[in-house]
Amino acid sequence: FGGGMVGLQFSSVMESMGSLLNGVVNYNSYLPEKSMEFTGTKDFFVKYQKRAGEAKVDPLGYYLAPFGYAMGQMVEQAVNATKSLDHKKLADFLRSNEMMTIVGPIVFGPDGERKESATLMAQFRGVVDKNIEQFRNPGKQIIVFPEKWKTGELIQPFEKARK
After folding, report:
1. Structural domains counted in the chain
2. Sorting pLDDT into bands at 50, 70 and 90, what band is 8?
3. What is the pTM of this model?
4. What is the span of the domain harbouring residue 93?
């Protein structure tokens, strides 16, 4: 059971639904699984989560925040490499180079889209009620696709995954 459900990426929704999430498969853009640890990732989340807590916004920040930061990293790499702010030079660099970011390497294909899918499909497992802290650690959202980032096998049927 699952698919492209908007909302399950946000901390407040995950905390509210708690154990009802067990077995559900949904998409996400970043998860705190071992396969998603890159240079700077942990430092980013330590800083982000501290500020987010103070501001009383999404305390985990896995869905959108790391990609906003990664976009800045890519622009920084393009500016440093080209020694320019010229849009054409920056765009040419971004289109033709692999950039290392806190969400992993990013390379664009000829169509301007990412060369490899970055959308994660993950299955909720072992989730308990009313505990946002559980989502800060690996093992609650097992990445089942793409293969490159996979951290476990899909448990099916849904009834079996709910246990």
Report:
1. 1
2. low
3. 0.87
4. 2-160
